[in-house]
Amino acid sequence: MRLRYLVAAVVTLAFALGGRQLWYRNRPSPTIAPGVLALDSTPPAIESPDTLHRGETLAHLFARHGLGAAEVKHVASMLDPRKLRAGLVFHVRRPHADSAPDQISVRTGPEQRVRLTRLPATWLATAEPIRWYVDTVRYAGSIESSLYEALDRAVPWSSLASEERMKLAWELADVFAWQLDFSRDLQPGDKFRVVLERRTSEEGETQVGSVLAADLEVNGRPVSAFRFSEKDKPGFFDAAGLSLRRAFLRAPVEFRRISSRFNRARMHPVLGYARRHEGTDYAADPGTPVMSAGDGTVVSTGWSGGYGNMVVVRHRSGITTRYGHLRGFAAGVRAGASVSQGEVIGYVGSTGLATGPHLHYEFRVNGAARDPSRVDLGNGEPIAPSLKPAFDADRVLLTHLLLAQPVTAVATKPANAPPP
Ligand SMILES: [Zn+2]
Description:
Nuclear Transport Factor 2, Chain: A, Glucose Permease (Domain IIA), 3 domains, nine-stranded antiparallel beta sheet, six-stranded antiparallel beta sheet, 20 strands, elongated, binds zinc ion
C-alpha cells in the first residue's frame, strides 16, 4: 500500500517539482449548471468565536449569548465535562444579528468537534470527526549547533509547528539510536535530509507522522535509514537492507532528556583535576530514566564509592555496562535479573563523586573501558530474502524523494476521509 503512494509521490514530484499543497489540485472544482444564475437572498448567518476563560463556567459563556438558565443547563449536559477547560473556543452562530443562537460548535480535542443545533423544543448534539490529511514532505539542511536548531532553521513554521519540529528531532534520534549518540556525535557542518509523512488538520494544524527515510552526513560519514515493515512491524534499514537495530544503544538516556549537548570535559568536576575518565557523562535532570543499553543480566546494584549508586549489567561476548551516580534503581532490578535493551534500570542522580545530576556510563569489553560511541557493533540483521525486492523498490523511490529539490510537499493521501 505504501509503495503505491510512493509511486504516486514520485510521479507527482516529476511533474510538479516546486509545487506545494498539491492535494488541492485533485479537488473537484465547484460546478454551476449552465444558464442558472445563483442568487441567494438570505443574509448570511453571523458566527462569532468566544473563549472559555479561566475560572469561568459554561453558564457564564452562554449567558453572554443570551441563553437562559434552563437552556444553558440542557446544552451543558450534552458536553463531556472532562473535556471542558479554559481556552476552549466556542463558535456561536445566529441567523441574524438580533436573534438567539441556533448553533454552537466547539473543538473538544485533536480528533473531534461537537456541534449543538437548536431544534424547536430542544438542542441536538452531534460529534464530528476532524479530518486530517497526510502528505509527504522533505526537509534538508546543515547542522550548526544541534539537530533541533537545524530543523528549526530549515523548516518554515507554516510547514510544521515548532513543537512538532522538536518532535521530529527526537524521532530522528530514535531512528539512529544504534548508530549515533546525538548528544555528542553531531558536529557543525553535518548535514541531514529527511522524508516524512506530515498530518494537516482541516483547521490547519500540523503534526509529524512517520519518518519514511532519512540520511545524515556525520563527520563526513553517511548514514541512511529507510522505513520498511516486516510482518506489519515497522523498522529501519540501511541501503543494503540491513536492520539499523544493534545489540547496544549508543546512549542509555533518551536524547530528549540530555541537557548538555557537547559535553566533552575531561576535568573531574569534584576532584578538580583531569583524571583518566573511563566513561561518558550525560547531564540530565534528576529522576530521568536510565535504560539498559542492551539485553543482559544484572551483575550488581548498590553503592560503589565514587560511582555512588551503580548498576552493572553483563551482556554477551564479554561486554559489561555500568551506570553510575544513580538516584535510585528501577523496581525488580537486582543481581541476577534479566534486562532487555531500552528497559529502565534506574534514575539519574548525583550520588558519589558528582557535583550535579548526571549519568556516568561505561562500556567495557573483557574489563577494559571502550568509547561506546566508537565501538564496532557489527552489521544489522538482513531483511527477509522474500521481502528484499519490495524493500528495494521502496528504497529506490524513497531515495528519489530524499535527493529531490527542497520542495515542501510532494504527494498526499487522505488519512481518514477524502478531501472535501
Ligand atoms: Zn563520569
